[in-house]
Amino acid sequence: MTGVYATGEEARKKGNKINRVGWWFKPWFYQYAQAALKKGEFVEYIPTREYYHRHTRSLYWEGKLILPFGDQFWFRFLLGWLMPPKVSLLKLTQGEAIRNYYHDSHVIQDMLVPLYKVGEALEFIHREMEVYPLWLCPHRLYKLPVKTMVYPEPGFELHQRQGDTSYAQMFTDVGVYYAPAAVLRGEEFNGTEAVHRLEQWLIENHCYQPQYAVSELSERDFWRMFDASHYEHCRRKYGAVAGGDLDERLLQVEEGEEDREGGAGG
User: One GO BP annotation here (predicted)?
Assistant: First the structure.
């Protein structure tokens, strides 16, 4: 699926189809796209705002797990305007059993992967998690004068790989959201171990894990994945490091004064 911007006049020309995918009674977009594959090649026009939010109502493809009948025509037609449910509300109201299910039997991961390593990442995800469908979104990391926590691979500009320029390296956001195939088949799946192995692969391949995802990173591995130099520079510049030492010294002084007062009173 590829797209280019078009004017309203062009879209309204005779014979053109305008598909307002955002209407609440429309099929969820990922299911519509799945069915569209069987139609062969065709062209349609989607309002830009509705295209941007094409996965909002169904929470990508997670809505099916949260509300199994949410994709049924009668629900979409009568109550589709209720979707998507507020994720923060779902988290507040879910019980311990559901929380454990999402931790142990469900995957919510995003990762920034250099474009030329996406094939390896997909093979790893299939081997460790076997989750489909997957979300792929291009993301450009710029070479900046100051090294930030997330940065391109050193010397990337020398290789002239596809999508790279002299000033930026092309990455891809790989989103993995759903229940692993092993869980759907009723087999054992250790979510903690799978995420840990994924994080180690990301570290070894200069990839990054957004921290809204489930993370098993230790402090040491966190700073192996993200560069701490600028962060530590800011802490030193604004006294965040010295501040802790000062608080400790003040506490020792106050304790000493209390000891002297106690001795005088005795």
Answer: steroid metabolic process
Which pLDDT value is given to residue 264? 41
- Kindly compute the dihedral angle of the four CA atoms of residues 181, 184, 188, 191, in this order, to the nearest 10 degrees: 60
Across the chain, which has 266 residues, the per-10-residue mean pLDDT values are: 89 90 89 88 92 87 81 86 77 67 80 96 95 92 90 93 95 93 90 93 95 87 93 88 48 45 42
Helix 240-265 and helix 229-237, axial crossing angle in degrees, nearest 10: 50
Q: How far is CA 171 from CA 99, 154, 156, in A?
A: 32, 14, 12
Q: Do 258 and 265 form a contact (C-beta atoms < 8 A)?
A: no
The predicted structure's pLDDT at residue 265: 40
Task: Report the distance separating Cα 121 and Cα 245, nearest Å.
Answer: 43
CA distances from 245 to 193, 231, 254 (A): 37, 18, 14
